[in-house]
């Protein structure tokens, strides 16, 4: 099972700034193992969605060009302190994880 | 025997027709399967294919779309990039790294008050242009920026 994400959500004026750090290897399927010389199979996040309360604010599709342990930062206008932010990702092996936090 | 053959042909015909619709741009894959990963665009090996997979056409260069990225990235495995669109009603921002083996890096859809601005860390195999495509009211706006990479982030 994947490690939890780190989510930070803070208010800047009337806009919430949300940063998410996901622990994920993001293997492209093109890298060779240093010891065996064999290709490491692709293992990467394909979709990541963010909801604020019960509304979807960010719906992303992700490819292999995103770095290992990726960070995503985005802004939502009209959010309030105390609102719940939920992030869900799913990778190409079907692994998925959901974490949530409240806006500080 | 005959019947199963007929079913098979029928299935093949339907699949073929769907593929033809997608190819013709009548049905875009993203519209057919809203939350599904856009496999065609992400697995495309050239920027043109990636743009086609996203349904981009007639994109115009725009100063309203901005990219914040280093001029020189010492480590191609982690290149911090911030993109923003000031075009009103921007719904979607996609990032394409032209010289990566699979150029399409990510595509973000914004809704319910999310600002069309996103920060990500990307991998770059070599010095390349980063192209950002913003979609607003069915039109496409692009901008690009070259980032020099001294150590590649793919392979290794």
Please specify the SSE layout and strand pairing:
The complex is a heterodimer of chains A (104) and B (156).
Chain A: E1 6-12, E2 15-21, E3 45-52, E4 55-62, E5 71-77, E6 84-91, E7 96-102
Chain B: H1 2-24, H2 29-32, H3 39-43, H4 47-54, E1 60-61, E2 65-68, E3 72-75, E4 79-85, E5 90-97, E6 104-110, E7 114-122, E8 128-136, E9 139-151
Q: How would you describe the overall organization of this protein?
A:
The complex is a heterodimer of chains A (104) and B (156). With 104 residues, chain A is mainly β. Helices cover 0% and strands 50% of the residues of chain A. Chain A has one domain: Immunoglobulins (Immunoglobulin-like). Chain B has 2 domains: 1-36, no CATH class; 44-151, SoxY domain (Immunoglobulin-like, Sandwich). Helices cover 26% and strands 40% of the residues of chain B. In chain B, strands 1, 3, 5, 6, 8 and 9 form a 6-stranded mixed beta sheet that branches. The longest helix of chain B is centred in the N-terminal third of the chain and has 23 residues, at 2-24. Chain B is globular. The interface between A and B is large, with 36 and 38 residues.
Largest interface comes to: A-B, 36 and 38 residues
Tertiary shape of chain A: elongated
Query: What is the subunit arrangement here?
Result: heterodimer
Q: What letter string, H or E per element, gives the SSE order of chain B? A: HHHHEEEEEEEEE
CATH class assignment of the largest domain in chain B: Mainly Beta
Helical residues, percent of chain B: 25-40%
Question: Which topology of chain A does CATH recognise?
Answer: Immunoglobulin-like
Specify the biggest β-sheet of chain A: 4 strands, antiparallel
CATH fold annotation of the largest domain in chain B: Immunoglobulin-like
Put simply, the count of helices of chain A is 0
**CATH evolutionary superfamily of the largest domain in chain B:** SoxY domain
The count of domains of chain B is: 2
């Amino acid at each position: 099972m994947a490690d939890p994400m780190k989510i930070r959500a803070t208010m800047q004026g009337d806009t919430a700034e949300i940063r998410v750090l996901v622990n994920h290897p993001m293997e492209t399927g093109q890298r060779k193992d240093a010891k065996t010389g064999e290709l490491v199979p692709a293992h990467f996040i394909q979709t990541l969605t963010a909801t604020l309360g019960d509304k979807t604010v960010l719906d992303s599709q992700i490819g292999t060009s995103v770095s290992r342990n990726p960070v995503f930062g985005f802004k939502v206008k009209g959010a309030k302190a105390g609102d719940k932010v939920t992030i869900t990702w799913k990778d190409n092996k079907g692994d998925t994880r959901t974490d949530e936090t409240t806006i500080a | 025997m005959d019947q199963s053959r007929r079913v098979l042909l029928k299935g093949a015909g339907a699949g073929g027709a769907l593929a033809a619709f997608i190819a013709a741009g009548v049905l875009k894959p993203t519209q057919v399967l809203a939350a599904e990963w856009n496999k065609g665009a992400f697995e495309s090996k050239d920027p043109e294919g990636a743009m086609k997979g996203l349904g981009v056409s007639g994109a115009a260069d725009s100063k309203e779309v901005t990219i914040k990225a280093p001029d020189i990235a010492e480590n191609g495995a982690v290149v911090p990039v911030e993109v923003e669109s000031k075009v009103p009603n921007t719904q979607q921002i996609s990032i394409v790294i032209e010289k990566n083996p699979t150029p399409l890096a990510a595509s973000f859809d914004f809704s319910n008050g999310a600002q069309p601005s996103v920060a990500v860390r990307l991998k770059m195999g070599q010095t390349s242009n980063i192209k950002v495509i913003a979609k607003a009211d069915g039109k496409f706006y692009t901008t690009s920026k070259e980032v020099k990479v001294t150590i590649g982030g793919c392979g290794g």
